[in-house]
Design a protein that fits this description.
CATH class of the largest domain: Alpha Beta
Number of helices: 27
CATH topology of the largest domain: 2-enoyl-CoA Hydratase, Chain A, domain 1
Distance between the termini: 52 Å
Radius of gyration: 30 Å
Shape: elongated
Structural class: alpha/beta
CATH architecture of the largest domain: Alpha-Beta Complex
Number of domains: 4
Helix content: 40-55%
CATH superfamily of the largest domain: 2-enoyl-CoA Hydratase, Chain A, domain 1
Oligomer: single chain
Strand content: 5-15%
Bound molecules: coenzyme A
Strand order of the largest sheet: 3-2-1-4-5-6-7-8
Number of strands: 19
Length: 666
């Protein structure tokens, strides 16, 4: 049948996984001997396979043959000896019990032709140990399908101690013939790739609930709303089954996966609350087996820390890579296909969030929990030492970046072109990025230099080191004349107006002090995201001067007369949290999550029609300063301009055709 010389396969076990695996083989044209212990189970399995095939056939495109023809390739038996006698390949999918599996393999080994390869679909038992029950250890391999096999693309192929290269190659090719994506797990580590990564996230989620009092629904909301995961950790645990999850964690930890158990899981399982299947787990369902997605509001969970939740999984990625268990590409592929994670996989998440930030989050977790598994992996530490921090340094930890990430150096600022964003980095860290007329001009020049670059949809302004910007350089005030100052302020005003008039959205990523001129730059931006340790204020009064780069006006517009006077007349600094309450900033996030949060804004804004973003920004900024009739008239005109764009036609058509719009900026 296939070029591999594999024609007939045995699938031992016709339960949840076994029947699905049999279906996948039959769909790819293989003759399948499906075995289980009773005719009832087999009959039920055939019904489920037929159901599933009929559903696939109704969806169209996926079945090349008729359901009957595919079904005709599946032959059932209750005897191992019958199932294996004329096969070329075998997949075992009986319950996760080592003795049971070994007995079946032993029996199969006696009756199967010597050339046949044996694969186990186990997710918890060492492949090496199982292979030792047979006389064909080099032709023995792990082949872990994801549930449900007909829909999930990923197959983890695990080498045991004795598995030959030829067996690995054949299994990889066979997996491709099944129309699945293989990843090779080079060492027989507990949990392979997917479960190790998955349970790092689950167990951290559980720790945050038990140790920090985070609400289950909020954590799931953050996973969905902020990280963009298809399901929150607790939703997914309910879906997998809490008993099954507990079993997997126990099996992994018993075999050396360093982790602390989740008391919530143990507690619920002991009460018979097993998740969706029993009608209740972390959430309540209408009845046993009746899944309803927990209701989560779009703004829920935004205050939780996405980098902290994912940091242990990134640590796991580092461990897997350093131990040579799998390649970065294969691990990325595993989480994308096996867990439906967004991004280009974990490595992309790590490089976007910043490897230094991941290490920071892990270090905090390690000291807060005292748990050894949170010790940052030496690989991550070495990346930080080498300056391989992710996209921001143009060199990823886990991957190099293509030349699209480009740095342009000015005297006092640095411009990083990183489509779809460009980052203006105020770059005098030793002097806390103090503002000078030259810096103001360089900000303007940097903005202009990317204005016509269609790849750049959003500009971010941030500071290097521990400050965003500690205000105007106080040295310039010494012995300054009124006229000199009048001119200096002109530079500052043209810079802040340039930001306000700029044709693309500008985000201030407030990474530390934003004082005086620093806060004034940030307030001219469209969106402000602050690190929770940032301090903000207009301290000029303490120098005997007043804000001169728009502070007396923009602070009032963002907050109100009272707060603005409080801050300007006292010169006091306020925390990011207070700034959020006052309406000065849009979001506050933990320091190590700032870059990730800003990238989220970048991606969101970059997905919008760029010309329309510009028009909206103009309508708001102009209208805020104008009498309402004039402002409304301007709004109506800009609406007219918006409707004339191709993007408006596309947006409206896409809505009516129920698809995602593809905006081109025309
Ligand atoms: N103008 C000139 N230099 C400044 C500055 C400013 N606005 N803000 C900070 N610096 C310099 C400091 O003089 C110091 O330089 P040095 O190392 O040569 O002595 C360096 O930046 C680091 O600042 P330092 O004061 O040592 O850091 P800190 O953490 O102790 O304090 C601030 C940080 C921001 C609270 C403090 O620097 C400060 O109050 N700065 C002035 C803020 C201000 O008034 N801005 C409005 C100006 S109109």
């Amino acid at each position: 049948m296939s070029s591999l010389g594999i024609k007939r396969v045995a699938v031992l076990g016709a339960g949840t996984m076994g029947h699905g695996i049999a279906e996948v083989f039959a769909m790819a044209g293989f003759e399948v001997n499906l075995m289980d212990i009773s005719d009832d189970i087999l009959r039920n399995a055939l019904n489920r396979i037929r159901d599933s095939l009929e559903r696939l056939s109704r969806r169209g495109g996926e079945l090349r043959e008729s359901v009957d023809l595919i079904m005709s390739r599946i032959h059932t038996t209750t005897k191992v000896s019958d199932a294996v006698k004329d096969i070329d390949f075998l997949v075992e999918a009986v319950p996760e019990n080592a003795d049971l599996k070994k007995n079946i393999f032993r029996e199969a080994d006696q009756h199967a032709p010597p050339h046949a390869i044996f694969a186990s679909n186990t997710s918890t038992i060492p492949i090496t140990e199982l292979s030792e029950a047979t006389s064909r250890r080099e032709r023995f391999i792990g082949m872990h399908f994801m549930n449900p096999p007909p829909l999930m693309k990923l197959v983890e192929i695990t080498r045991g101690k004795y598995t030959s290269d030829e067996t690995v190659n054949i299994t990889v090719q066979l997996t491709r013939i099944l129309n699945k994506e293989p990843v090779v797990v080079n060492k027989d580590v507990p949990g392979f790739i997917v479960n190790r990564v998955l349970f790092r996230v689950m167990l951290e989620a559980c720790r945050e609930v038990t140790q920090e009092g985070v609400k289950i629904i909020d954590l799931d909301a953050m996973a969905r709303n902020v990280l963009g995961l298809p399901m929150g950790p607790f939703e997914l645990l309910d879906y997998i089954g809490l008993d099954t999850s507990l079993f997997i964690v126990k099996a992994m930890t018993e075999r050396g996966f360093k982790a602390h158990p989740c008391p919530l899981l143990e507690d619920l399982v002991s009460k018979g609350k097993l998740g969706v299947k029993s009608g209740e787990g972390f959430y309540k369902y209408p009845g046993p087996g009746q899944y309803v997605k927990p209701r989560i509001l779009p703004e829920q969970g935004l205050e939780l820390d996405p980098v902290k939740l994912m940091a242990p999984a990134i640590n796991e990625l580092a461990w897997l890579v350093r131990e040579g268990v799998a390649t970065v590409d294969d691990i990325d592929k595993s989480v994308k296909l096996g867990l439906n994670y967004p991004w280009g996989g974990l490595s992309e998440f790590a490089d976007e969030a910043g490897i230094d930030n991941i290490v920071d989050a892990l270090t905090q977790l390690r000291s807060a929990s005292g748990w050894e598994e949170y010790e940052p992996d030496p690989l991550l530490i070495s990346y930080v030492k080498e300056g391989r921090l992710g996209r921001k340094s143009g060199r990823g930890g886990f991957r190099e970046y293509p030349p699209e990430v480009e740095f342009r150096k000015y005297d006092e600022v640095m411009l990083r072109i990183d489509p779809p964003s460009a980052w203006i980095i105020l770059n005098k860290p030793d002097k806390l990025n103090v503002l000078t007329p030259r810096m103001a001009d360089e900000i303007v020049n940097a903005l202009r230099s990317v204005e016509d670059d269609p790849r750049i949809r959003v500009v971010v302004i941030t500071g290097s080191g521990r400050a965003f910007c500690a205000g105007a350089d106080i040295n310039q005030f010494q012995n300054a004349t009124p006229m000199q100052m009048f001119k200096a302020m002109r530079h500052y005003h043209s810079m802040t107006l340039e930001i306000e008039y700029y044709t693309k959205p500008v985000i201030a990523a407030i990474n530390g002090y934003a004082l005086g001129g620093g806060l004034e730059i940030a307030m001219a931006c469209d969106i402000r995201v602050a690190s929770e340790d940032a301090l903000m204020g207009q301290p000029e009064i303490n120098l005997g001067i007043i804000p001169g780069a728009g502070g007396t006006q923009r602070l009032t517009r963002l907050t109100n007369l009272g707060i603005s006077k409080e801050l300007i007349l006292t010169g006091k600094q306020v925390s990011a949290k207070a700034a959020l309450e006052y309406g000065i900033v849009n979001r506050v996030v933990p320091k190590h999550a700032l870059e990730y949060e800003v990238m989220r804004w970048v991606k969101e804004l970059a997905s919008k029609p760029p010309l329309t973003l510009m028009l909206a920004k103009y309508a708001i900024n102009y209208g805020y300063e104008a009498p309402i009739w004039s402002a409304l008239s301007n709004e109506a005109s800009l609406f007219g301009v918006a409707i004339s764009t191709k993007d408006a036609q596309e947006g409206v058509r896409a809505f009516l055709e129920k698809r995602r719009p593809r905006f081109t900026g025309e």
